[in-house]
Amino acid sequence: MTPRLALAGVGVRYGAHPALADVSFSVAAGEVVALLGPNGSGKSTLMRAVAGLQRHAGSVALQPGTRLGFMPQDNAARSALTVLETVLLGRLRRLGLRVPAEEVARAAAALDRLGIAQLAPRLLSELSGGQRQLVFLAQRLCGEPGLLLLDEPTSALDLRNQLALLALLRRLAAEEGAGVLVALHDLNLAARFADRVALLAAGRLAAIGTPAAVLTAATLAEVYAVEAEVLPAASGCPAILPLAALPVPAEPIRAGAAPH
Q1: How far, in Å, CA of 33 to CA of 176, rounded?
Q2: What is the reported pTM?
Q3: What is the pLDDT of residues 188-241, one digit of tens each?
Q4: Terminal Cα-to-Cα distance of the chain (whole angstroms)
Q5: Is residue 172 a part of any domain in this protein?
Q6: Integer CA distances (angstroms), 50 to 61, 69, 158, 168, 246, in order
Q7: Is 183 inside any structural domain?
């Protein structure tokens, strides 16, 4: 089966600085892949390259007919818009005096799916950072994407909303066949909700595989420079307990496990 997304040898340079080098992996329909790595490892650069917003070497191939929904870390929108109007822009190029009733219903359903239907008449400027994050995700869901690219969508959310959002992404993948590539910093959330994790280090793919295969104490020490215990949780997912910071390696990390 053709994957929703296939990356082959993706590289990005900012002048003389290589931000990404030879990154290759795929995201299947119905799969959630968590993109992990320390600050500056290239996660946001890779997301922009996949979204077509960053020039790159190598190839980024989407399954034909796949609609892409990209949610960057920083979303720009007019704060004078209401929440409902913002979500409608996920499908409409502009808002006229009359919006088809079916589009309004679709936008309302996206808000309801995220548990924020009550925010529909509010202005974006009145919302907290976490509420705005959920609104922009509703905007992407309103576009009915076959591939979701989400760059740290849980960064401004409280614990309950983090869990609810990632559970929704799992259902979206399982029930609608969407592919999901989500950049996260929380390793335990990645272990709990991702089918596979892609671990970047110094702009290269250090490892890709199941959370249990990749998120080992040895790998976390090498890539994140932290001492950690990795314990078996009742769910069957690994639970990561960070213990201490380790000295940062003098040499950049090179590619580790072979991508697949």
Answers
A1: 16
A2: 0.92
A3: 999 999 999 999 999 999 999 999 999 999 999 999 999 999 998 888 899 999
A4: 14
A5: no
A6: 8, 11, 28, 22, 33
A7: no
Domain count for the chain, please give it. 1
Rg, the chain, Cα only: 19
Are β-strands 196-201 and 204-209 bridged in parallel, bridged antiparallel, or unpaired? Answer: antiparallel
CB atoms within 10 A of CB 218: 9
Name the phi and psi angles at 207, rounded to 5. -165, 155
CB atoms within 10 A of CB 204: 21
Neighbouring CB atoms inside 10 A of 208's CB total 24
Distance between CA atoms of 226 and 143, rounded to whole angstroms?
40
Low-confidence ranges of the chain (pLDDT < 50): 253-260
Structural domain including 128 reads 77-144
Q: Among the residues of 59-186, which ranges form H helices?
A: 83-88, 101-113, 129-142, 159-176
* Residue at 21 is within a domain: no
200 assigned to some structural domain: no
The answer for residues whose C-beta is within 8 angstroms of residue 134's C-beta and 6 or more apart is 114, 115, 116, 157, 161, 165
Neighbours of 38 (CB within 10 A): 18
What torsion, rounded to 10 degrees, do the Cα atoms 48, 50, 52, 54 define? 40
